[in-house]
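Please fill in the sequence for the structure shown.

STRUCTURE ENCODING:
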């Protein structure tokens, strides 16, 4: 179980970084520079707290000694990142398709 948990910790950390922090930062920069419709900024109001919560839960899961609780936290953090991606990136695509 320890080997599986160690790889899960790596993958959850990479998922939060690549699929959570990076897309939110890129969309935030697009909104700040005015390269995307302003309504996309409203999606960030829901997406940023999801990514921050996923980041905090992932760190708690990486530092937890109990394997079962750590795996539940890591899975939850990846689910929160997936929800934030659907909200921000999917909403961005729908808004762009609707405005053009």
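FILLED IN BY: designer on duty
SEQUENCE:
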């Amino acid at each position: 179980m320890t080997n599986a948990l160690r790889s899960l910790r790596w993958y959850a950390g990479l998922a939060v970084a690549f699929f959570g922090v990076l897309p939110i930062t890129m969309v935030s920069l697009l909104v700040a520079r005015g390269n995307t419709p302003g309504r996309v900024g409203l999606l960030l109001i829901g997406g940023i707290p999801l990514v921050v919560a996923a980041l905090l839960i992932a760190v708690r899961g990486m530092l937890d000694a109990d394997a079962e609780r750590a795996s539940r936290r890591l899975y939850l953090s990846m689910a929160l990142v997936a929800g934030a991606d659907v909200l921000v990136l999917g909403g961005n695509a729908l808004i762009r398709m609707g405005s053009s």
